[in-house]
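Notes from hallway chat w/ T.B., transcribed later so I don't forget. T.B. wanted the structure written out for a chain they're using in a teaching module, and asked if we could keep both sequence and structure tokens in one place. Agreed to drop them here.
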Amino acid sequence: MTDKIRVAVVGAAGAFGMKHLDGLMNIPDAEVTVVSGTRLEPTQAVAAKYGVANAVVGLDAVLERDDVDAVILATPTGLHASQMQEVLKAGKHVQVEIPLADSLADAEATLAAAEASDRVAMVGHTRRFNPSHQLVHNRIAEGSFNVQQMDVQTYFFRRTNTNAKGEPRSWTDHLLWHHAAHTVDLFAYQAGKIVQANAIQGPINPDLGIAMDMSIQLKSETGAICTLSLSFNNNGPFGTFFRYIGDTETYIARYDDLFNGRDEQIDVSKVAVSMNGIELQDREFVSAIREGREPNSSIRQVIDCYRVLGALEKQLA
């Protein structure tokens, strides 16, 4: 390994591939040596934009290189588990965008592959790294705040297959396995192991083949509860908004920003070295590789989230 961790970003031309590149450019210990996509021309354009020397097509073209220590996968959800296993088999460290998989069987198989490897295997559960949620987590850890209830809204207006940039995508997103994964994992991270989970969903969209509306209820071992509402039908501001109702305060997290229950903004600029949750997530990935340790949001740490999602999928079926 060189002085810097040599990183490949796969799916670089997509919305989240570019978010990872934005973050990696601010990490002194990281060097992006290659970007990969499904089409060469847009991938070359991304390489030129970020000053990356090499642009290739496909994952195989990345794994055969000797200038790659670690791979970040920002690819379609259905490929996450199999591609993560391929990267581990090739002996490289890997971080995959959320979700780890879109089935419990694939999630468990990927955990087994990670446990059989000596490589860092991390999942992009960004909410663990947003400064807003970090501050709440710190206050829970110090004993000055305990979650009683979380109320979460995850809303998009997405009646066609489009990505976060509003561009067409070749695969279909999913409220349960992708968007609910953020909140299911975060609730357990902040309030303890989930011991009860229930879900209902609205009508199946005839074109996309998925439910466009969903409601999930969770309860943790501490007695805290969580209500999560998800929709692809909401014609309004999009994103996920978290209300923490606790024993000493109420907090509202809007991505990296945090407010109290009276909607007064709380300064979180000193919580971490950046205000960008994805950059902080990538810093953890690079640091864990450098230090030879398990990262926050390793597969082992987040697997319970996918076990809960698997149970909810059975309920919905």
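Follow-up for T.B.: The longest strand covers residues 147-155. Might be a good example for the class.
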